[in-house]
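ok trying again, last paste got cut off:
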Amino acid sequence: MAVQVNYFSDESKRSHWRPWFVWLEGLFYFFQGFYLTGMQTFLGVSMANFGLAMDQQANISAMLGIPSYTKMFIGLLSDRLPFVRFGRRKPYIALGALLYIPAFALLLSMKQYGFWWIAAALAAQLAWVMVDTTLDARTVDVTPQEYAGKMQGAAQGSRMAGMGLGIV
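nice, full thing came through this time. structure:
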């Protein structure tokens, strides 16, 4: 009978832990903060440039928050539906990153407001949600309890630094 390894035990996490994980976490979250703030600023400026009334801008901004409510489903999906060779988290992180490229390229190319602009903006927000959700889950998967605070600090501090630079 084969021995089954519990990859989510702290003992297993410790044996796979590498000190550079904290730096990698910080790097991912820095770019995530940069992207999120840049995207929010870009969307707001675009709506103003389209000449939309403030109430329309507020309604659209609220609607663009809808993908955030899918986080739990994306998390459950990545928990239950691994891509066998690539694992449970990395494929969803890569898929979100790849979804971002056409969504943002489409947003940049559009010169007027309409259905496709909203669809591209929603796709860009969904891309962020996919990456954020699965990156959070990946962090929990690999981090032993004694490093959880360090990883959380690296993530939040780096995201805020990215947001600060992204607004520029």
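cool. The mean pLDDT is 86. The chain has seven helices and no strands.
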